[in-house]
From TrEMBL, chain A:
The organism's taxonomic lineage, starting at the top: Bacteria, Bacillati, Actinomycetota, Actinomycetes, Pseudonocardiales
InterPro entries assigned to the protein according to its UniProt record, in alphabetical order: Beta-grasp_dom_sf, Mopterin_synth/thiamin_S_b, Sulfur_Carrier/Prot_Modifier, ThiS/MoaD-like
Name of the molecule in the record: Molybdopterin converting factor small subunit
One Pfam family here: ThiS
PANTHER family assigned to the protein according to its UniProt record, in alphabetical order: SULFUR CARRIER PROTEIN CYSO, SULFUR CARRIER PROTEIN SLR0821-RELATED
UniProtKB/TrEMBL annotation, chain B:
Protein name as catalogued: Sortilin N-terminal domain-containing protein
UniProt entry tagged with the keyword Repeat: yes
PANTHER family reported for this sequence: EXO-ALPHA-SIALIDASE (PTHR43739:SF5), XYLOGLUCANASE (EUROFUNG) (PTHR43739)
InterPro entries: Sortilin_N, WD40/YVTN_repeat-like_dom_sf, Xyloglucanase_GH74
BP GO annotations: xyloglucan metabolic process
Coiled-coil region list: none
Domain Sortilin N-terminal positions: 177-310
SUPFAM superfamilies: Oligoxyloglucan reducing end-specific cellobiohydrolase
Keywords: Repeat
Length: 94, 364
């Protein structure tokens, strides 16, 4: 199914300059599966979102339907056709 | 001396700056931040290539650690598609930070080592673009007992032997000094004589909080070491260590640096104590020994004489490789000082930067 990944400005250079990626994700479509597809197309982008264990980085938030995925099922959060998945860096640093 | 170009790579908590001098280190031009908003704990200038390569370990608070390189002295930066440095899946570990990037010996021009957090050593055979875990150290029986200091648990010092590539020395906090004589296949602790004031056993086999180790390429069996309480020298290839702290205002500090041409000349930046991490008397002073630590002299001409309450971190002091050696250090308050006369006098070459985490200098 086709889902949409929305990126903050700081990450767009690692996604060919795109603010929005349309990504075809196989079944079962989840946040983790979406990021696996992103890893193949844009590896520098994906490793800024997840570490080598495929764990979401601490200060990266991924919203699905307005909810941060950690409040849902994490990497197993299900995606529906046309879902918008938004990456937003959390507040961190000084 | 003919004018030559000197570059000082300055790693800070928010990016890398490059200071360049074209007139024998009299005047400096600063560019940066390169790789902004990343903490640069490790930087190296690899002079073994036709075009010197800058290697930089960056860590974004948000987007994690990586290694980037530049073959045009910072005009452009490269990061490969595949992760430059990552733990293999079976380890269950994830890279926290790159603490040290060290070019290998001249006889292995494509070898670069990386010391990382959590404590592990990685080796590159493509000039520092991509790295593989050195399994022998990762699988060491001591590893479960290595601890984390305030800065994290990391290998922060890598000292390849200058002519025997099978011989590698590393240091970590905490854990201490470890050595391999078989290209990293097996390792042994090398901490005899180094104290661990924070443990019930004063002189354990391992577990010390070694802050930095230095060696001179012309005399590779000798090491100098700044410990978390203690300054030491080894004359027997790290088999044993003797205190050389007498004559210093304190035995605490983070950094130790050897003169590039004189194996008896070593520099430190003492702080009062573990529980009082300030320059003694608020005076900014580098200490130099010209007799391998038997006596010490304070170097302070051009440095702040009072009110200096900053510190110099473990990799924030270095030399260049010029005929008359230059010496450099950066402070946590964002100043970088340079000496072009081996420490006799100093000038500020950068100020108002973020905390300086590391500096490396070379003639290019």
């Amino acid at each position: 199914m086709l889902v949409v990944l929305l990126l903050p400005g700081v990450l767009r250079p690692h996604a060919g300059g795109n603010a929005k990626l349309e990504v075809e994700v196989g079944e079962p479509a989840t946040v983790g599966a979406l990021l696996d597809v992103v890893a193949a197309r844009y590896p520098l982008l994906e490793r800024r979102l997840r570490d080598e264990r495929r764990v979401l980085r601490r200060y990266v938030n991924v919203y699905v339907g307005g909810e941060e995925c950690r409040q849902l099922n994490g990497a197993d959060t299900a995606l529906t056709e046309g879902a918008e998945v938004q990456v937003i860096p959390s507040v961190a640093g000084g | 001396m003919a004018d030559e170009r000197t570059i000082v790579a300055i790693g800070t908590r928010k990016g890398l700056w490059l200071a360049t001098s074209e007139d024998n280190r009299a005047r400096w031009q600063l560019t940066g931040p390169h790789n902004p908003m990343t903490a640069v704990y490790a930087v190296a200038v690899d002079p073994r290539r036709a075009r010197p390569r800058l290697l930089v370990g960056t860590t974004s608070e948000h987007f994690g650690p990586t290694v980037v390189t530049s073959d045009d002295l910072g005009r452009t930066w490269r990061e490969p598609d595949q992760p430059p440095l990552a733990f293999p899946e079976d380890t269950g570990a994830a890279l926290g930070r790159v603490w040290q990037l060290t070019p290998g010996p001249a006889c292995e021009p494509e070898v670069v080592y990386a010391g990382v957090e959590p404590s592990a050593l990685f080796r590159s055979e493509d000039g520092g673009l991509t790295y593989e875990l050195v399994r022998g150290l990762w699988e060491h029986e001591h590893r479960p007992d290595w601890g984390a200091g305030y800065g994290g648990q990391a290998i922060h010092t890598v000292l390849p032997h200058p002519t025997r590539p099978e011989s590698i020395t590393v240091a970590m906090s905490t854990g201490g000094v470890y050595r391999s004589e078989d290209r990293g296949a097996s390792w042994h602790a090398a901490n005899r004589g180094i104290q661990a004031g924070f443990l019930p056993e004063r002189y354990p086999e391992f577990g010390q909080c070694v802050h930095k180790v230095a060696r001179h390429p012309d005399r590779p069996e000798r090491f100098f070491l700044q410990n978390h309480g203690g300054v030491y020298r080894s004359e027997d290839d790290a088999a044993s260590w003797q205190s050389i702290a007498e004559g210093l205002p304190s035995d605490f500090g983070f950094t130790v640096v050897v003169h590039p041409h004189q194996p008896d000349t070593v520099y430190t930046f003492p702080l009062i104590a573990d529980e009082n991490r300030f320059a003694p008397e608020g005076r900014c002073r580098v200490y130099r020994s010209e007799d391998a630590g038997r006596s010490w002299q304070a170097l302070q001409r051009g440095l702040p004489e009072a009110g200096f309450y900053s510190t110099v971190l473990r990799d924030a002091m270095c030399t260049d490789d010029a005929e008359t050696a230059g010496l450099y250090f950066g402070s946590r308050s964002g100043e970088v000082y340079a000496s072009r006369d081996e420490g006799q006098s100093w000038q500020v070459i950068a100020k108002h930067l973020p905390d300086v985490l590391c500096v490396r200098a070379a003639t290019v």
